[in-house]
Amino acid sequence: MRGPILLSLLPAVVLFSVFFAVPLVVLFGTAFTDWSGAQLAFVGLDNFARLAGDPVFVKVVGNTLFYLAASTLVQVPLGVAVGIVLATKVPGWRAFRTVLFIPFVISGAAYALIFSMFYNPRFGLLNNLLVPLGLPQRDWLYETGTARWAIAGTFVFILGFVIVVTMAEIASIPAELYEAAEVDGATGWQRETRITLPLLRNAIGTCVLVRLLADIGMFDLVFILTAGGPDDTTATLALYAYRAYLNGEWGHANAVGLVILLLGGALIVAVRRAFRVGERDR
């Protein structure tokens, strides 16, 4: 009996080993080396000391944290608010849900091309809307004061995932709770803030976790729109590692990958503790 069970698990074990376990071991092992593909030499913590002393690395860490904050503080709260409104079955809620979900299934590359036209300094829609109002024409993606905000503006309004998770969680809340609150004279605002929001804790924590882990490795949007410029104002940790790979500094790049991995692990622990994800309400 154990033979067939082990045999059925074999494909999953092979796939997990090839695409996760082996790359992870290589990442850990080579992050402490000077590796250029042909040569490999152990250098201890030199790669990490070099990262700590590189002002560009400090800048890309700040940029990555900025994008993570944009996801957590704008995208998730906005998506939860829209999800709560749509869950009340307002007229046309199915159409709104579908329209708002479409951007979530568009690839990052296609999304970047759309926004490259939107932000175009000469014929982009944004300048065409703002200039008639008396505001100056700007190159949103290549001015240091606006570039990072312009990048964040491309993804913080992709609300589809958060909306769907929120609505699914609301659908599981017992209707008796709302009926009891209505009998007690609770207003709509009180029902949403004192029943719905507290019971969305797990869903909100899951959305925060998913968005943080998705955006910590952000690459395609930034690479296509600005390639990290101007003056590394929009560069991310993933783009920084990519540049190191192009320069043949594979060990240095894997040290950046290890930093991303550790940062992601710390975020998982922090979010799980903050939202008590997976725990039942007492």
Automatic annotation (TrEMBL):
GO terms for cellular component: plasma membrane. Residues 61-271 form the ABC transmembrane type-1 domain. Keywords: Cell membrane, Membrane, Transmembrane, Transmembrane helix, Transport. The keyword Transmembrane helix applies. It is found in: Cell membrane. GO terms for biological process: transmembrane transport. SUPFAM superfamilies: MetI-like. InterPro entries: ABC_transporter_permease, MetI-like, MetI-like_sf. The chain crosses the membrane at residues 65-87, 99-119, 149-168, 208-230, 250-271. It comes from the Bacteria. Gene3D superfamilies: MetI-like (1.10.3720.10). It is a multi-pass membrane protein. The keyword Transmembrane applies. Belongs to the binding-protein-dependent transport system permease family. This is Sugar ABC transporter permease.
